[in-house]
Automatic annotation (TrEMBL):
Keywords: Lipoprotein, Myristate, Signal. Residues 1-15 form the signal peptide. InterPro entries: Dymeclin. One of its GO terms (cellular component) is Golgi apparatus. It holds the Pfam family Dymeclin. The lineage of its organism: Eukaryota, Viridiplantae, Streptophyta, Embryophyta, Tracheophyta. It comes from Agropyron mongolicum. This is Dymeclin.
Length: 305
């Protein structure tokens, strides 16, 4: 697996004296000047993985798609089950990310599976134990969930899949809760952990983006998940109010060192702006549930009231 990951992620930079091919070039950053941006040779292993087809896929369809060169064929069912069994290993998470991000056929296969808990439960358990993970590991897990949550079928499916129990969740007994409700609880827990420990803005935004994608499709959100969502808004609004009060406090301007006061004021303004964005997204999530899924979510209404 490690050798495979090195092969598919390795990029050889094109030297200055080489001519840059018209296609198959990966530009590192679209914001940089094209002339200054480094160019990379096409990676055949990455291309092979991204074009891999399910072994149950019709041969005639594969041949009709005019693929360049032979197509790698493998069992998506076996791969799905193997990944579900091995996701506690970081290298397996990276392979899943590579497949979901690069291979459209595998992503579609995952989205139509009815047993999404095979992949999602190990991911949610790792997020639940975020304190034992690095920010990079957490980020990778969230990106996988973010990619999947962009699909409306996925969002509908997770809310309808009921879990008999969640043995690794310690704070509360989780009996007959939906996978969607568990996702909401674990994501909000990750947000609160991030705010207190990691303080990574992008990680936080990814969590909220997943919740925003799920919002309009929420179906019978549990009482606990609804309460956690409202408590997240309460926590963010308290922090926002505290920062706003600090910014308006004139005592900052009466400090002996005016430069130090300016630095503190700038820091407060930046943090206030960040919390304003966070609060806006949480309000959008609640609004989406109330607008598109109100009859199906009485617990959310009760929690808000």
């Amino acid at each position: 697996l490690l050798v495979l990951l090195i092969l598919i992620h390795y990029r050889k930079c094109i030297s200055m004296n080489e001519s840059i091919p018209t296609d198959g070039v990966y530009m590192s950053d679209s914001n940089t000047n094209v002339k200054d941006a480094p160019a990379f040779h096409e990676n055949p292993y990455c291309k092979a993985l991204n074009n891999a087809k399910d072994i149950q896929f019709d041969h005639a369809d594969v041949e009709g798609n005019a693929q360049n060169g032979p197509v790698v064929r493998l069992s998506f069912a076996s791969l799905f089950d193997a990944l579900g069994a091995c996701l506690k290993d970081e290298s397996s998470v990276l392979l899943l990310y590579s497949l979901v991000h690069g291979n459209c056929d595998f992503q579609e296969y995952v989205l139509v599976r009815t047993d999404l808990d095979t992949l999602l439960m190990p991911i949610l358990e790792m997020l639940y134990n975020a304190s034992r993970k690095t920010s990079n590991q957490i980020y990778m897990l969230l990106i996988i969930l973010l990619i999947l949550s962009q699909d409306s079928t996925f969002n509908a499916s997770v809310h309808k899949l009921v879990l008999p129990s969640v043995p690794w969740y310690q704070e509360r007994l989780m009996h007959q809760t939906s996978l969607g409700s568990l996702m909401v609880v674990v994501l909000i827990r990750t947000i609160k952990y991030n705010l207190s420990k990691l303080r990574d803005v992008y990680l936080h935004t990814n969590c909220l983006a997943i919740l925003a994608n799920m919002g309009p499709h929420a179906h019978r959100l549990s009482a606990y998940a609804s309460q956690r969502l409202v408590s997240l808004f309460d926590m963010l609004s308290r922090k926002y109010a505290k920062l706003a009060e600090l910014k308006n406090d004139k005592a900052l301007k009466v400090m002996s060192d005016q430069m130090e006061a300016d630095i503190i004021s700038d820091d407060t303004s930046t943090e206030l702006h960040i919390y304003t964005d966070f609060l806006r997204i949480v309000l959008e999530i609640i609004n989406a549930i109330l607008t598109y899924a109100l009859p199906r979510n009485p617990e959310v209404v009760y929690a808000i009231l």
